[in-house]
Design brief:
Blueprint (H helix, E strand, L loop, with lengths): L1 H6 L4 H12 L3 E2 H8 L3 H13 L3 E3 L6 E4 L2 H34 L8 E5 L1 H14 L3 E6 L12 H8 L3 E7 H4 L4 H12 L2 E5 L6 E4 L3 E8 L2 E9 L3 H16 L1 E2 L14 H11 L4 H8 L3 H15 L4 H10 L4
Parallel strand pairs: 5-6, 6-7
Antiparallel strand pairs: 1-3, 2-3, 4-10, 5-8, 7-11, 8-9, 9-10
């Protein structure tokens, strides 16, 4: 355990005194010095340092005695400081690697594409991609997923608030993922994210500005523990053009955000119109909205009657004529 303290930046004598204080609270400096094999001066200096770092404090009644701060708080704080230092160092490493590749890409094309392996390495690079973005983040979102896709993305929300534009094209199966539309996607749209949907996407991808793209490597319905990182090159320019082409063809998801107030369709009908326009099947609509198949059919039939339509195409045309799309 004492070795772990040194890894966290705590001196050997400080770790000894803290560990002794944990098992023997209300100890005096003299008692701790004897227990740890230190001189009284060494022990008092260690206690002073522990107090400065918020790991020990004097007893409230007898000020000559000491108490340890709970290990989960004291050690957790040390771990938090070290993690912050490591994140800063990692960010600087990525910044320097970006500069290195930019300087090298004209003489060594191999630096244009990088292969990452391991979930932690991929997660770290995605974090770097988001944090380093300056004006826009673009992405293709489609199954399969390694993590629960309904979980909110605080880093992206923070970027939105800082003025970074975020545009995402969702595969229709991403929209149909149970609970995702209401719990995560529409929340992002309300925060300012621009979202559209296509029946099928060519890949999963995230791109920061015009500097970097990350493409998870997948085979069939499985995501491998690897990803391509594309740096400035002709390939990255092609991915830029591919995204913009898919974005132009996609249906805006903002059409499913009605509040049902005033003239026009109610909230459920507006959601149905948007999802129908996005190309979702009846089954996918039911899953995305958490409805039963019977409820979905009943509401679809009600929408068709209101629009005076007998086919989905007619429903779409009628909705567009009324200004609902």
């Amino acid at each position: 355990m004492l070795d772990a303290f040194t890894v966290l930046g705590l001196g050997l004598s400080d770790g000894q005194v803290y560990a002794a204080l944990v098992v023997a609270p209300q100890s005096t400096a003299e008692e701790l010095a004897e227990h740890c094999g230190l001189t009284l001066e060494q022990c008092r200096e260690a206690l002073d340092r522990l107090a400065e770092q918020g790991m020990a404090t004097r007893a409230p009644v007898d000020r000559e005695r000491y108490l340890s701060v709970a290990p989960d708080v004291a050690i957790g704080t040390l771990i938090g400081h070290r993690e912050a230092e490591l994140r800063s160092a990692r960010a600087e490493m990525h910044r320097l690697m970006d500069a290195f590749r930019e300087a090298s890409r004209y003489t060594d094309p191999a630096h244009s594409v990088e292969v990452l392996t391991g979930g932690e390495a991929i997660a770290q690079r995605l974090e770097h991609l988001i944090e380093s973005s300056q004006y826009q983040i673009r992405g293709f979102d489609c199954p399969p997923y390694v993590q629960d896709p309904t979980v909110e993305q605080p880093r992206q929300r923070a970027k939105l608030k800082s003025g970074v534009r975020i545009r995402t094209v969702f595969d229709k199966e991403a929209i149909a993922w149970p609970g995702r539309l209401e719990q995560e996607i529409l929340t992002g749209v309300e925060d300012g994210e621009e979202a559209r949907v296509r029946p099928v996407l060519p890949m999963k991808m995230m791109m920061a500005d015009d500097k970097m793209a990350i493409i998870p490597i997948s085979v069939g319905d499985s995501v491998l523990d690897a990803a391509y990182v594309i740096h400035p090159s002709a390939l990255l320019q092609a991915l830029d053009a591919l995204f913009e082409a898919e974005w132009e063809r996609a249906v805006p998801l903002q059409t499913v955000l009605g509040d049902g107030e005033g003239p026009g369709p109610d909230a459920d009908h507006l959601k149905l119109i948007g999802l129908l326009a996005a190309g979702l099947t009846d089954e996918s609509i039911a899953r995305s909205l958490g409805w039963s198949a019977r409820t979905t059919q009943r509401r679809l039939q009600g929408l068709m009657r209101e629009l005076g339509a007998t086919t989905r195409f007619q429903a779409g045309m009628a909705a567009r004529e009324r200004g609902w799309l």
